[in-house]
Design goal:
- With 145 residues, the protein is α+β, with helices and mostly antiparallel strands.
- The protein has one domain: Gcn5-related N-acetyltransferase (GNAT) (Aminopeptidase).
- The chain has 5 helices and 5 strands; from the N terminus they run βααββαβαβα.
- The protein has a 5-stranded mixed beta sheet with strand order 1-2-3-4-5.
- The N and C termini lie far apart (47 Å).
- Bound molecules: coenzyme A (COA).
- Coenzyme A (COA) binds next to strand 4, helix 4 and helix 5.
Protein backbone atom coordinates (compact mmCIF):
# COMPACT_ATOMS: atom_id res chain seq x y z
CA UNK A 1 0.00 0.00 0.00
CA UNK A 2 1.45 3.43 -0.92
CA UNK A 3 1.65 6.56 1.27
CA UNK A 4 -1.60 7.93 -0.13
CA UNK A 5 -3.78 4.82 -0.26
CA UNK A 6 -6.63 4.67 2.28
CA UNK A 7 -7.23 8.42 2.05
CA UNK A 8 -10.67 9.99 2.22
CA UNK A 9 -11.35 13.43 0.70
CA UNK A 10 -14.36 15.18 2.26
CA UNK A 11 -15.64 18.64 3.26
CA UNK A 12 -13.77 20.11 6.22
CA UNK A 13 -15.26 20.19 9.74
CA UNK A 14 -14.11 22.63 12.45
CA UNK A 15 -12.72 19.63 14.35
CA UNK A 16 -10.22 19.03 11.51
CA UNK A 17 -8.17 21.87 12.99
CA UNK A 18 -7.32 19.43 15.80
CA UNK A 19 -6.45 16.79 13.17
CA UNK A 20 -3.45 18.76 11.89
CA UNK A 21 -5.17 21.01 9.34
CA UNK A 22 -2.80 23.95 10.03
CA UNK A 23 0.29 21.77 9.55
CA UNK A 24 -1.06 20.56 6.20
CA UNK A 25 -1.87 24.03 4.87
CA UNK A 26 1.56 25.24 6.03
CA UNK A 27 2.91 23.53 2.87
CA UNK A 28 1.55 26.64 1.14
CA UNK A 29 2.71 29.27 3.62
CA UNK A 30 3.46 29.23 7.38
CA UNK A 31 0.18 29.69 9.26
CA UNK A 32 0.46 31.51 12.59
CA UNK A 33 -3.19 31.26 13.70
CA UNK A 34 -4.00 29.63 17.02
CA UNK A 35 -6.42 26.72 16.76
CA UNK A 36 -9.16 28.91 18.29
CA UNK A 37 -8.60 31.68 15.72
CA UNK A 38 -8.54 29.10 12.93
CA UNK A 39 -11.98 27.86 14.04
CA UNK A 40 -13.27 31.46 13.76
CA UNK A 41 -11.82 31.78 10.26
CA UNK A 42 -13.40 28.44 9.33
CA UNK A 43 -16.83 29.64 10.55
CA UNK A 44 -16.51 32.90 8.62
CA UNK A 45 -15.65 30.94 5.48
CA UNK A 46 -18.67 28.68 6.01
CA UNK A 47 -20.95 31.75 6.27
CA UNK A 48 -19.51 32.98 2.97
CA UNK A 49 -20.04 29.54 1.40
CA UNK A 50 -16.33 29.02 0.75
CA UNK A 51 -15.95 25.24 0.47
CA UNK A 52 -12.87 23.76 2.14
CA UNK A 53 -12.01 20.10 1.49
CA UNK A 54 -9.56 17.95 3.38
CA UNK A 55 -7.72 14.70 2.66
CA UNK A 56 -7.72 12.46 5.74
CA UNK A 57 -5.37 9.58 6.44
CA UNK A 58 -5.50 7.74 9.76
CA UNK A 59 -7.61 10.56 11.25
CA UNK A 60 -5.03 13.24 10.31
CA UNK A 61 -5.37 16.00 7.70
CA UNK A 62 -2.65 15.55 5.07
CA UNK A 63 -4.00 17.80 2.32
CA UNK A 64 -6.54 20.49 1.54
CA UNK A 65 -8.07 22.50 -1.29
CA UNK A 66 -10.79 25.15 -1.41
CA UNK A 67 -13.47 26.19 -3.87
CA UNK A 68 -15.59 29.30 -4.41
CA UNK A 69 -18.55 29.09 -6.75
CA UNK A 70 -19.45 32.36 -8.50
CA UNK A 71 -22.68 32.83 -10.48
CA UNK A 72 -21.99 35.42 -13.22
CA UNK A 73 -24.28 38.10 -14.63
CA UNK A 74 -22.54 37.57 -17.95
CA UNK A 75 -22.40 34.16 -19.63
CA UNK A 76 -26.19 33.90 -19.17
CA UNK A 77 -25.84 33.51 -15.41
CA UNK A 78 -23.25 30.75 -15.87
CA UNK A 79 -21.21 29.55 -12.91
CA UNK A 80 -17.43 29.81 -12.43
CA UNK A 81 -15.36 27.71 -10.00
CA UNK A 82 -12.38 29.38 -8.31
CA UNK A 83 -9.82 26.98 -6.82
CA UNK A 84 -7.82 28.28 -3.85
CA UNK A 85 -5.18 26.99 -1.43
CA UNK A 86 -4.29 23.54 -2.73
CA UNK A 87 -1.73 22.10 -0.29
CA UNK A 88 -0.36 18.67 0.50
CA UNK A 89 1.51 18.10 3.78
CA UNK A 90 5.23 18.07 3.03
CA UNK A 91 5.63 14.46 4.12
CA UNK A 92 3.04 13.29 1.56
CA UNK A 93 3.91 15.29 -1.56
CA UNK A 94 4.67 13.65 -4.92
CA UNK A 95 2.47 10.60 -4.25
CA UNK A 96 -0.52 11.70 -6.29
CA UNK A 97 -2.57 13.37 -3.54
CA UNK A 98 -2.45 16.92 -5.00
CA UNK A 99 -3.78 15.48 -8.25
CA UNK A 100 -6.56 13.66 -6.41
CA UNK A 101 -7.58 16.85 -4.58
CA UNK A 102 -7.75 18.85 -7.81
CA UNK A 103 -9.75 16.09 -9.56
CA UNK A 104 -12.12 15.97 -6.59
CA UNK A 105 -12.71 19.74 -6.81
CA UNK A 106 -13.21 19.52 -10.59
CA UNK A 107 -15.93 16.89 -9.99
CA UNK A 108 -17.65 19.26 -7.53
CA UNK A 109 -17.42 21.99 -10.20
CA UNK A 110 -19.02 19.65 -12.75
CA UNK A 111 -21.85 18.91 -10.30
CA UNK A 112 -22.40 22.68 -9.97
CA UNK A 113 -22.36 22.95 -13.78
CA UNK A 114 -19.42 25.37 -13.82
CA UNK A 115 -18.56 26.37 -17.39
CA UNK A 116 -14.93 27.05 -16.37
CA UNK A 117 -12.59 26.64 -13.40
CA UNK A 118 -9.79 29.12 -12.74
CA UNK A 119 -6.94 29.63 -10.26
CA UNK A 120 -3.80 31.66 -9.63
CA UNK A 121 -0.55 29.83 -8.98
CA UNK A 122 3.20 30.28 -8.75
CA UNK A 123 5.24 29.71 -11.92
CA UNK A 124 6.82 26.54 -10.48
CA UNK A 125 3.50 24.69 -10.04
CA UNK A 126 2.26 25.41 -13.57
CA UNK A 127 3.46 21.94 -14.74
CA UNK A 128 1.40 20.36 -11.93
CA UNK A 129 -1.80 22.10 -13.08
CA UNK A 130 -1.03 21.43 -16.75
CA UNK A 131 -0.97 17.72 -15.89
CA UNK A 132 -4.46 18.21 -14.47
CA UNK A 133 -5.62 19.65 -17.82
CA UNK A 134 -5.34 23.40 -17.07
CA UNK A 135 -3.71 25.82 -19.50
CA UNK A 136 -2.25 29.31 -19.07
CA UNK A 137 -4.87 32.01 -19.47
CA UNK A 138 -4.50 35.80 -19.24
CA UNK A 139 -2.58 37.37 -16.30
CA UNK A 140 -3.05 37.69 -12.54
CA UNK A 141 -3.04 41.24 -11.06
CA UNK A 142 -2.54 42.33 -7.45
CA UNK A 143 -2.42 45.43 -5.26
CA UNK A 144 -1.25 45.27 -1.61
CA UNK A 145 -3.42 47.37 0.73
C1 LIG B 1 1.70 21.52 -5.66
C2 LIG B 1 1.19 20.37 -4.78
C3 LIG B 1 -0.23 20.67 -4.32
C4 LIG B 1 1.20 19.09 -5.64
O1 LIG B 1 0.73 18.03 -4.83
P1 LIG B 1 1.45 16.61 -4.91
O2 LIG B 1 0.66 15.64 -4.12
O3 LIG B 1 2.87 16.77 -4.55
O4 LIG B 1 1.33 16.35 -6.48
P2 LIG B 1 1.05 14.97 -7.23
O5 LIG B 1 1.91 13.90 -6.65
O6 LIG B 1 -0.43 14.72 -7.24
O7 LIG B 1 1.54 15.34 -8.69
C5 LIG B 1 0.73 15.20 -9.83
C6 LIG B 1 1.60 15.42 -11.02
O8 LIG B 1 2.12 16.75 -11.02
C7 LIG B 1 3.54 16.73 -10.99
N1 LIG B 1 4.00 17.76 -10.06
C8 LIG B 1 3.68 17.91 -8.77
N2 LIG B 1 4.27 19.00 -8.25
C9 LIG B 1 4.99 19.53 -9.27
C10 LIG B 1 5.83 20.67 -9.38
N3 LIG B 1 6.04 21.50 -8.33
N4 LIG B 1 6.41 20.92 -10.57
C11 LIG B 1 6.20 20.09 -11.63
N5 LIG B 1 5.41 19.00 -11.59
C12 LIG B 1 4.82 18.73 -10.43
C13 LIG B 1 3.93 15.36 -10.48
O9 LIG B 1 5.19 14.98 -11.00
C14 LIG B 1 2.82 14.48 -10.98
O10 LIG B 1 3.04 14.09 -12.30
P3 LIG B 1 2.87 12.53 -12.76
O11 LIG B 1 1.42 12.23 -12.52
O12 LIG B 1 3.29 12.54 -14.17
O13 LIG B 1 3.76 11.79 -11.83
C15 LIG B 1 2.11 20.11 -3.54
O14 LIG B 1 3.40 19.84 -3.98
C16 LIG B 1 2.11 21.27 -2.56
O15 LIG B 1 1.33 21.30 -1.61
N6 LIG B 1 3.05 22.22 -2.77
C17 LIG B 1 3.16 23.38 -1.87
C18 LIG B 1 1.96 24.28 -1.94
C19 LIG B 1 1.65 24.77 -3.35
O16 LIG B 1 2.51 25.26 -4.06
N7 LIG B 1 0.37 24.64 -3.74
C20 LIG B 1 -0.14 25.12 -5.01
C21 LIG B 1 -0.87 26.40 -4.75
S1 LIG B 1 -1.58 27.09 -6.20
Amino acid sequence: MSEVDDIVIRPMYATDIQRGFLAAIAALKPCELTDEDAVEVFRKRMRQKIMTYVAIKEDRVIGTASLLIEPKFIHSGGVVGHIEDVAVHQGFQHHGLGGRLVKFILDVCRQHKCYKVILDCAEEVIPFYEKMGFHRWERAMRIDL
